[in-house]
Design brief:
This protein is an alpha+beta fold. The chain contains 14 helices and 23 strands. Helix 2 links the parallel strand 1 and strand 2 (49-52). It starts with a helix and ends with a strand. Keywords: Monooxygenase, Oxidoreductase.
């Protein structure tokens, strides 16, 4: 972080210590991608925004593989995409998988064909300490204020409405800040998510643990896919292999909670044993050394990969990103969901403050769209897991979508219940199982067809309904960010729902 920005942050803190600036339009709890994106979007509309971040940036974070919709859609709207392009992050054209019945790795590219690859058919692999700092500094440039080492302890309520937060600074002094809206963007460890109401429901299907670390000197995929994330299934689970720089690689093993013994004890020995189980990853790391110092020197464990809060908002408080929900990372959806939900919530806040639509209508639209996008990726990933063939592995036999997984599939139906869309026309667990089985079969067929195409054509995968759904909304955000009013008027996503303004920043009433 630059010395000029640091002075600006310190100046904000000094003014606060003198008793100034204790009321805002929006207080954002957490300065990660979701919080920074929302803060920038709302500040760009002229509203007063404060970000409270419990740590000091730059800081370590996982979630390093991005999707194009974040870079070319949401970040285009905030104006930070050019800074990201200049940051030197590793370009990511797609993902390469050793997954399914095919013994050879296969590749999913963001472009339909290498011959017609466009300017937006890539994303980045990012060092999150650097990426998050760029987004946060950009939010400050757009007018947001930031206070570091500000640990939010609770919300302030007035009757049924949240009206602010309490936080403790680095010196242990407690402060109160009032706001029209509080946005919880504090991640999976959120202390505020319970205050929105409802409960946090954990998936049994994606009930996993990840053990991960960083290596120097690992191999790379052949060009032009050398920047792709590599996901490799093996008997105990799967590995991610993310090329952050030409020399630095993020490597993690995902196993079921029931196999927690595989990641317990000495983490160094545990990770090495898992690598030994997976020939492809072992080969890629044959000449590599694990990083043992700095922000990447620690082996880490992450658990309970997938969950959702049954309510995403209440008057004065809204959850975005991992505070609201998270789904298994095999398709790199974490930062996409965080920034997409930030865009939806920013539209709702801005539209309500501007008096364009009612609060109820704005945040009902936010929750319905966010829940739909989470449901799309949830269904996509259940179908994706189901296509892998390894009946001798407990991990993979437990990942088969069958009618016996009744509770999990009922939970999925409840997750998307109330979303009036033909995409989620489900009437129970058995219909969900049949649909996911069908989508899994589509994956298998598409990969088999691709394996015989020497041109690298992605058309078979893009014909798959699961892939189309997973890419659909992100592509729409990208199109709106680039084309604006030239894209033409939006149409409601749900009957009677709201539409997006031409610039993509606000909600408007749908056609009568």
């Amino acid at each position: 972080m630059s010395s000029e920005d640091r002075k600006a942050y310190e100046g904000h803190n000094e003014r606060t210590d003198r008793g100034e600036h204790t009321e805002y339009d929006v207080v954002v709890v957490g300065g990660g991608p979701g919080g920074s994106t929302l803060a920038a979007l709302v500040a760009m509309q002229g509203h007063r925004v404060l970000i409270l971040e419990k740590e000091t940036f730059p800081r370590y974070q996982i979630g390093e593989s991005l999707l194009p919709s974040t870079i070319h859609g949401v970040c285009k709207l905030t104006g930070v995409s050019e800074k990201l392009a200049a940051a030197g992050f590793t370009p990511k054209k797609g993902g390469t998988f050793r997954w399914g019945a095919n013994p050879e790795p296969w590749t999913f590219s963001f472009s339909v064909s290498p011959k017609i690859a466009g300017a937006t058919s890539h994303a980045y692999q990012v060092e999150r300490s650097k990426f998050d700092s760029i987004l946060l500094e950009h939010a400050v440039e757009k007018g947001a204020e930031v206070r570091f080492q500000a640990a939010v302890s609770d919300v302030i309520e007035d009757s049924e409405r949240v009206t602010g937060v309490r936080y403790t600074d680095a010196g242990g002094v407690e402060h109160e800040v009032r706001a029209t809206y509080v946005v919880d963007a504090s991640g999976n460890g959120s202390r505020l998510h319970k205050r929105v109401g409802g409960t946090r429901e954990y998936s049994q299907f994606f009930r996993s643990l990840a053990l991960f670390g960083y290596f120097r000197g690992g191999k790379r995929l052949p060009a032009p896919n050398s920047g792709n994330i590599l996901s490799v299934a093996f008997s105990s689970g799967w590995f991610w292999y993310i090329p952050l720089t030409p020399d630095l690689t993020s490597v993690g093993a995902v196993v079921r909670r029931e196999n927690a013994d595989k990641v317990q004890g000495d983490p160094e020995q545990a990770l090495r044993a898992l690598i030994d189980e997976c020939p492809m990853i072992k080969d890629y790391l044959a000449d590599a050394t694990r990083v043992t110092d700095g922000q990447y020197g620690q082996l880490r464990v992450r658990k309970d990969y997938s969950y959702h809060q049954t309510s995403f908002w209440r008057p004065g408080l809204v959850l975005i990103g991992d505070a609201a929900c998270f789904v298994d990372p095999v398709f790199s959806s974490g930062v996409h969901l965080a920034t997409y939900s930030a865009l939806l919530a920013a539209r709702s806040i801005g539209s309500t403050l501007a008096g364009l639509v009612s609060e109820e209508a704005a945040f009902t639209e936010f929750e319905a769209r966010y829940r739909r996008e989470y449901g799309v990726f949830y269904e996509f990933l259940m179908s994706f897991y189901d296509m892998h063939v390894d009946e001798n592995s407990y991990f993979w036999s437990a990942k088969k979508v069958t009618r016996n997984q009744h509770t999990e599939l009922e939970s999925f139906v409840e997750l998307v219940a109330g979303i009036s869309s033909s995409e989620f026309d489900l009437d129970g667990a058995e219909s969900a199982a049949l649909r996911m089985k069908s989508k899994s079969a589509e994956f298998v067929s598409a990969i088999e067809e691709m394996s015989t195409d020497s041109e690298g054509n992605m058309t078979p995968l893009f014909r798959s309904s699961a892939v189309r759904q997973a890419m659909q909304e992100g592509a729409q955000v990208q199109s709106r960010a680039f084309l604006g009013e030239d894209l033409g008027p939006d149409v409601p996503m749900f009957p009677g729902g709201l539409i997006t303004s031409d610039d993509g920043m606000l909600w408007q009433p749908g056609p009568a």
